[in-house]
Amino acid sequence: MAKVEIEIDGKIVNARAGEMLIAVTDREGISVPRFCYHKKLSISASCRMCLVDVEGAPKPQPACSTPIADGMRIHTQNEKVKTSQKAVMEFLLINHPLDCPICDQGGECELQDVAMEYGSDVSRFTEGKRIVADSDIGALIQTDMTRCIHCTRCVRFGTEIAGIMEMGGIGRGEDLKIEPFLTEGIQSELSGNMIDVCPVGALTSKPFRYELRTWQMNSKHNIARHDLVGSNIHAQTYKGKVKRIVARDNDDVNETWISDRDRFSYEGLSHENRLLAPQIKVEGEWKEVEWSVALDFAVRGLSNNILNSHQTSQLGALASNTATLEEFHLLQKILREIGSENIDHRLNVKNLNDPIVLDSNIKIANLENVDHALIVGSYTRLEQPMINHRLRKASLKGATVDVINAMEFDFNYPINSENIIAPNKVAVTLAGVLKVILESKQKEIPDYLAPVKIDDSSSALAEKLLSADQSVIVLGEHIINSDSAASIANLITNIAEQTKSSTLDLSMSGNSMAANLAGFVPGKGGLDVNAMLKADLKAYILLDMYPHYDFHHSIKAIEALNKDDTFVISLNSFKDKDVANYSDVLLPIACFYETSGSHVNIEGEIQSFAAAVSAPSDSKPAWKVLKVLADLLELPGFHYADSTQVTSEITHQSHNTHVHDENINLTAKQGVHVIWQKSPYAIDVLSRHSTSLQMTKIGQINSAWMTKTTAKSLDISENDKYLGVPVVISNTVANNCVFINANHSTQGGGQT
Ligand code: SF4
Ligand code: FES
After folding, report:
1. Ligand 1 center to residue 191 CA distance, Å?
2. Confidence category of residue 559, pLDDT binned at 50, 70, 90
3. Any idea which ligand is nearest the CA of 48?
4. Which of 114, 223, 401, 548 is 20 to 30 A from 68 in CA distance terms?
5. Burial classification of residue 251, based on how many CB atoms lie within 10 Å of its CB (0-12 exposed, 13-18 middle, 19 or more buried)
6. How high is the pLDDT of residue 747?
7. Full set of structural domains in the chain with CATH
8. pTM of the predicted structure, to 2 decimals
């Protein structure tokens, strides 16, 4: 767009020809009132609140839909503008209820703010106001539709961003109503953003209803740790409690949106299940004690079990993927200072002898610029909502998306080809893709590809990657427990190299990238999680781990940790029956928003945050607990005054833990393959304790999908349970495959 000069209120301003006037006034800090305009949504120009005077135009023009042209002279404050804006305001207030004193939007209401400036004290409208019945649209959003001013931001959000048209306008003129189309409530994983875009109190947060006024709260920058994006948020607090989470703009990360998981998980912080006091187990009975007693007990236990007998390799450390970068660093440092390399965070991976190694080499923001994406083993919409949002944007710009999945999923953009195959066939399909690509480039075919037969789907997938200018191959978490997971990752690397595609590894979750950066994986001679559990270690330090949810095979893990002669120190933010059974010391730690630390996103970007509130009761930030534990163990190098000193230590060292293994195994194991995945709102301890999230449709996903043929081969039917999860017969799943989305971890192993 050509650069031009225009004049606004007598000031010469640089702009780009064709951009909307409101974007220029916003950039220049010139205030123009608006309701329907939103910088991330299409322009509807329906409210007329943004009228300005453009010299030469016969009538005031809406700033949100007036394109800039060279030499334009605009007035935003003259009498003509003020009169127009006042008229629009009067018209909008005709039907708006005067219920600001009981409206949750009060204090952050765009209508209230604009009415203060442009409204009149007295209404000339004496007729009855319109009343609109409310609909119950689910556990997250409260509706008060009488307050709706028909700006259609929520409707446009649904169609343009969420990709599901859930709200729409019904009726005309006086009878126009904005309503949900579906009776079963809003389904989108991004639905809470409608609360943010609604300029009035028609859509507000249900869990926050009648809690507080916005001006009573402090707003603190924070980072959401539920996925690999690290969305930027404001944690809004009052009297030491997190009361609300709202999105914070960062165009490189989450733009202006956040997922419902990031928005509503905070509710779990005040759950009655929080672990609030240090406890030690004496003769099988739990006893609440002072911190100093609990830490002394922990040190004595480590001394008796491993240190005094110089059996340091008998110590293991495991952590869930919700820990901060600093917590991962301190725990691995304790282990390594003591002399153990038994360190791991990959609790849900069945086979760590041949782990997935795949570079992520595309920026989150650049995902929307690809012209082709191949998704392998992921329902990105529910697993990584903000990554999916970028792929959707790419799709809206014309990109094609192919998927290779074990089940058909409801993507919110068109899928070019959906290859529904069991995990044991993914490697062979990708090998076919690689072979076609190598043949088309007349390159040498390696021996392992020689026997691969090329089918139509491999050819079509290869063709798309070859013809794309900028493509990305996304690897998801569905294949982590496939026997050929490492081969799949290696094939993707090879295909990407040949087609100059970018790659994105979404097979991890939460803050796994931080764990990798901190070196929270076994070092030379160390054991991985599966080997540790088989090795009957004599002592463990466990960081916020919940075995029923975190392990690939929870029952075996619980049995291993429950051994009589194993001394277990558990740092937990919530109580857990299994943790209480196998632990000897329970140390209560801070949860999300209660500690300072860092998240590392899929780009490798370290995003640090301060604590928004203090940890409740006697619980403490885990980094402080680990520091004191290290001091009591008389380990060197733990003199940190705050967590930022830990962060800078990490950024000055590097761990080289990944070794790229080029082995590719194309043997397809027979039998029924199980893909076990935790439901989107069961992936971490905080989400699991958010009552509202659990009440949503997504929160209640707990099903084992399989075809009739697969069910028959397993001798089960629709009303049965498979591995403890209710069976759903569906022809959307690949044959010989069971796709499980469960609210707990696997009980019976990954593959039958
Ligand atoms: S509910 Fe809110 S966002 Fe939706 S049309 Fe009404 S005022 Fe606009
Ligand atoms: S903001 Fe311009 S018409 Fe609504």
Report:
1. 13
2. very high
3. 2
4. 114
5. exposed
6. 52
7. 3-93 (3.10.20.740), 128-270 (3.30.70.20), 279-353+512-651 (3.40.50.740), 365-505 (3.40.228.10), 673-742 (2.40.40.20)
8. 0.94
Please name the residues in contact with 273: beta carbons below 8 A apart, sequence gap of 6 or more: 574, 575, 689
731-739 mean pLDDT: 95
Pocket test residue of 34, 54, 66, 88 for ligand 2, highest count of atoms within 8 A of CB: 34
Rounded Cα distance between 123 and 119, Å, is 9
CA 29 – CA 278 distance, rounded (Å) = 52
Band of pLDDT at residue 410, cut at 50, 70 and 90: very high
Give, rounded to a whole angstrom, the gap between the first and last alpha carbons of the chain: 60
What is the arithmetic mean of pLDDT over 469-497? 95
Confidence of residue 652 (pLDDT cuts 50, 70, 90): low
* Tokens standing for residue 27: 């950039």
* Per-residue confidence band for 666, with pLDDT thresholds at 50, 70 and 90: confident
The bound ligand whose nearest atom lies closest to the alpha carbon of 49 is 2
User: Which residue has a Cα nearest atom 2 of ligand 1?
Assistant: 198
Name the helix (H) or strand (E) containing 165: none
Contact 495, 449 (CB under 8 A): no
Closest Cα to atom 6, ligand 1: which residue?
148
Residue 150's nearest CA partner among 175, 126, 128 is 175
Take residue 369 and report the two structure tokens written for it: 């610029």
pLDDT tens, 290-335?
999 999 999 999 999 999 888 999 999 999 999 999 999 999 999 9
Ligand 2 atom index nearest CA of 65: 2
Pocket of ligand 2 (CB under 6 A): 34-37, 45-50, 62, 64
Around Cβ 415, how many Cβ atoms within 10 Å?
16
Q: Which atom of ligand 1 is nearest to the CA of 197?
A: 3
| Mean pLDDT of the residues in the chain | 93
Does 36 sit in the ligand 1 pocket, CB within 6 Å? Answer: no
Q: What is the DSSP string of 615-640?
A: PSTT-B-HHHHHHHHHHHTT-SS---
Containing 172, the helix (H) or strand (E) segment is none
Question: According to DSSP H, which parts of 246-384 are helical?
Answer: 260-264, 291-302, 325-338, 380-383
CB 419 within 8 A of CB 461: yes
